[in-house]
Amino acid sequence: MVDFKDIIANEIYDEALGLSIDDIRNLIEIPADEKMGDFAFPCFRLAKALRKAPQMIAADIAGRISGNEAFAKVENVNAYVNFFINRAYFASQVVSEVNDLGDQYGRSDHGAGRKVIVEYSSPNIAKPFHIGHIRSTVIGNAIYKLYDAIGFDVVRINHLGDYGTQFGKMIVAYRKWGSEEELAHDPIKTLLKYYTRFHKEAKDDPSLEDEARETFVRLEAGEPEEVALWKKFRELSLAEFNRVYDMLDITFDSYAGESFYSDKMPRFIQELKDKGLLIKSEGAQIVDLEEYGMSPAMITKSDGSSLYVTRDIAAAVYRKEHYDFYKCIYVVASQQNLHFKQWKKVLELMGYEWEKDCIHVPFGLVSLSDGDDIKMMSTREGTVVFLEDVLNTAVEKTADIMREKQTSGVDIDTVSREVGIGAVIFQELSNNRIKDYVFSWDKVLNFDGETGPYVQYTHARASSVLRNASEEDLAGVRAGEFDWSKLNSDSAYTLVKLLYRVPEVVLEAANKYEPSILTRHLVDIAQSFNKFYHDEHILVEDKDEKLAKLALVLASRTVIANCLGLLGIKAPERM
After folding, report:
1. pLDDT average per 10 residues of sequence, the chain (575 residues)
2. 318 and 426 part of one domain
3. In terms of Cα–Cα distance, which of 328, 333, 186 is closest to 254?
4. Residues 312 and 181 in one domain
5. Which of 524-541 are b and which e, b meaning 16 or more Cβ less than 10 Å from the residue's Cβ?
6. Which residues participate in catalysis according to the annotation?
7. Predicted TM-score of the model (pTM)
8. Could you give the number of structural domains in the chain?
């Protein structure tokens, strides 16, 4: 892709200026007011070296480099050299590259040869996969896709919550009140019912809590009966989870959860002892972090059972030794900020310098539109909103909307699934991940707002324009046999500029672990395309003008589809 900052820097460069090409490039600005050009170079810094007023230097530079085909005009305004891009040249470069690269446009080899791990979703087995899990799941999947797009070798890990005292509770509950037939019929809701009953019964009979702790200790010790029940719960849960993952079109490279590291923890408990970091406190073993402004990191409980910190230490070292990662990214809610700070500090104290490459990517809470904070949903009380139910509702509501609009020539079953599920994902990814937000059906399924359906409809609109073009016209577009100067309107130019920025937006979104950067840019592209569509007649009589505009439509459709794909969303051809 043509890099205008590089062109400008090379044109301006002169040994007498005392600046390298990179220095010049870094000084180039984008004016806030488009009337002042597309790029501007300030000359204040050159005044001392050239012993000349900045205004005069700017005039000299503007006079020296005018005439480059990349620019329609180069002029000086006071101490600035302002560059106005040649719209025809710009469109020819950008649109041609998009159409040549197709689904590869926006991708790069920035991370070539380096491995990144992304841990996300990570629900607890034997518990509902509820609406609160959607944030880690789709944010993590988008981060995986972004890092894959910029050339990293990405490993997707679903660190299942398949260990801990909760499984002692579940086993006890199943033995007391469980039914094999009931469990087979509806595994997760049945296990939720047992878990809920356990906590109600434990209020009156605290001995149940002791029984659960003892049961988990036996599970950790590998007792066959406990292990057999735990495996049953795990397999049933995964089957349920995978139904939701299939709806979201999400897959993983590894489902190694907490249990995978159970036999690896003794090595690190011993290492903590050997390094003088482990101390006893009321029967438990802890690492004292008081001098770092944190509460102690508990390594084992008084009954000898393990905790999250212990398992996360074992997981991190295993991943470093097994994958030799460049980064290990943890997409986990902001409520776990303290845990990650404690855990990283323990790794640092153990001497693992690569702990700095373990990145916690936190996110805020999602609330229902009636104001009920989903964090307050309680598995213990049985008050949860299943994610699968939310996705199915989105599909049903979308199908109803499409029928009301009397959509013709469309496979409503397929498209309502793509649009409904895409709408839920887009809503998640359009918000800055660290902010709390309210889930609202009115917003999610709005075909006119800054939503997934709006962007998908824009893709379908572009597809419709291309279907209405003749094969001869499309062949002419692919061959580039037309006059690019016909593509010089303000609406076309604004759209081309947004398409041009996509590769840098993808890179920025990955580097900041922030899919909403790409989502917002995609909305800008959709809005800009729709303005172009409404302002311009595309299938006009003038062949050059028609082909130039069709080339921009094709490029826009390609970019919208590519960006939706990076967010984990389908791009329907018809809606």
Report:
1. 91 91 95 92 93 95 87 94 95 96 97 97 87 93 98 97 87 93 88 90 93 90 92 91 95 94 92 95 93 95 82 96 98 96 97 97 81 45 74 92 84 95 95 87 81 96 96 94 92 96 97 98 98 95 96 98 98 95
2. no
3. 328
4. yes
5. bbbbbbbebbeebebeee
6. 127, 130, 133
7. 0.91
8. 3
